[in-house]
Amino acid sequence: MAKPAQGAKYRGSIHDFPGFDPNQDAEALYTAMKGFGSDKEAILDIITSRSNRQRQEVCQSYKSLYGKDLIADLKYELTGKFERLIVGLMRPPAYCDAKEIKDAISGIGTDEKCLIEILASRTNEQMHQLVAAYKDAYERDLEADIIGDTSGHFQKMLVVLLQGTREEDDVVSEDLVQQDVQDLYEAGELKWGTDEAQFIYILGNRSKQHLRLVFDEYLKTTGKPIEASIRGELSGDFEKLMLAVVKCIRSTPEYFAERLFKAMKGLGTRDNTLIRIMVSRSELDMLDIREIFRTKYEKSLYSMIKNDTSGEYKKTLLKLSGGDDDAAGQFFPEAAQVAYQMWELSAVARVELKGTVRPANDFNPDADAKALRKAMKGLGTDEDTIIDIITHRSNVQRQQIRQTFKSHFGRDLMTDLKSEISGDLARLILGLMMPPAHYDAKQLKKAMEGAGTDEKALIEILATRTNAEIRAINEAYKEDYHKSLEDALSSDTSGHFRRILISLATGHREEGGENLDQAREDAQEIADTPSGDKTSLETRFMTILCTRSYPHLRRVFQEFIKMTNYDVEHTIKKEMSGDVRDAFVAIVQSVKNKPLFFADKLYKSMKGAGTDEKTLTRIMVSRSEIDLLNIRREFIEKYDKSLHQAIEGDTSGDFLKALLALCGGED
């Protein structure tokens, strides 16, 4: 069975048995089957307490010790559903899938539901292992056998899925999302008849992350979910297969929760389906399936199995389920789940980040330098030319223009710009002309100089920059002001707020993925602090929020919800106050969805009487080449008006022109 990637969560219900001894297990199983009758309790206890990898070692030890095949002995000693379940657990996962498919296409008729379930839900790696196992076990080609037993578009989609070539890149191109939405719409709703090939190509090859966004955009574009279009345009087994694919794309655990519920509801139990799922998901996502099952059907998977099965068969299934979600402390509350999904499932962190300013094509620094010199020479200033050139060049290109300007005219471009333009426009244009790290360093310096401190600016910059950006800011600050950023923060702030800022300013946040066990410990750490113990609470939050990686913190936030039924942001706002609260909230919001954090800041800078031009300028400058396009999307989705409209209604003159140029368009 494929193991989770390093740092990935493990959500199976079966784990490696500690102190595992394959010889000892082989002897115990031999004893359990020796003589008259068999000790079924001992058999199920051993096999359900070992991982599949360990079971393979037991098989090998059994053959070495007794010269017999363990699976053959189990088949001989056991009968019925219990035998099928135990033998399924003893096979390597790929061979278990291969056996299920072989049975589904053997003899008269085909078990299409089995084919759909397996081929719609397996990963690329699992599919490759399945094909190899089928070849090894039956000396036949799986693709050829499926082609020989199915037909039409159903057959074509099964063959596409069998290739195991679904894209796996988590970075999504929004342009391709829009194109796929249009192609699906034109292949179905807008076409007389249906272009099934388009559905097969897109749903059979695109990555899961990409398709989730396609489904979201499809709903916005057409006013109906993709499932409704599939039901209206396709039919028969092909329709059922495509709906299963969509369900697995949206949530594989939810697909299996639904399959398990249907296998046990009503009169009779579909034992083959029940066995297949409980065996195949026990080391993958059984805990997720349990959570969804309990939330969706208002009863635990454990209790439904208990009421619907009997004997050793029941005992084995209950062991595989891993626990009863109706027991105290087990149930994952629906309200908490929804609260978490509101931001976690948006998958913003995996959407391709895009700025609005890109390197100019056919860039000519010599021509730009001359045009800027001409715009500032003589009486008056040609602000339009200055705005047009500077807002349509990348920062790297602007630095080349600065160098060329000095080489040609022996003058400093920044000095000339300062003398020719003023006010908000000057702050914006000069900010764009500075290298990003030096611009951030200057904003931090300004936030700390003079009477009072602009804590919001300190928080905004230090809570949102990457390690590489923070390190570059430290170097720029030292170079420009001959003082370390840490010393400046130490002398201008105090208490826990100072400690938080200094921790962030080190640029030593972890950069790995999530670690589920550590995430639970971290969530417990901040959940355990008694209400009212403010100092301890702030210290614990700082230790975790300022050092853990973004993917890990997302998992911490989810585990925190499970433990407390509260979002971590709610707890921070309730238990803390002042700058410490604001800093922690900024970190949490940035971790959840950084573009949305900046969209909120931009909205607040322009709402009400007056405009906070400093914040507006700082964000438009600093995010223009990173994620301003994403910020625009979040802005219009949350506030029902575009960033372009907000800027247009709240600013004026050349400052307005420059901001709109940076904004990059009207949504």
UniProtKB/TrEMBL annotation:
PROSITE patterns: ANNEXIN_1 (PS00223), ANNEXIN_2 (PS51897). This is Annexin. May associate with CD21. May regulate the release of Ca(2+) from intracellular stores. Belongs to the annexin family. It holds the Pfam family Annexin. It comes from the Eukaryota. One of its GO terms (cellular component) is melanosome. GO terms for molecular function: calcium ion binding; calcium-dependent phospholipid binding. InterPro entries: Annexin, Annexin_repeat, Annexin_repeat_CS, Annexin_sf, ANX6. It is found in: Cytoplasm; Melanosome.
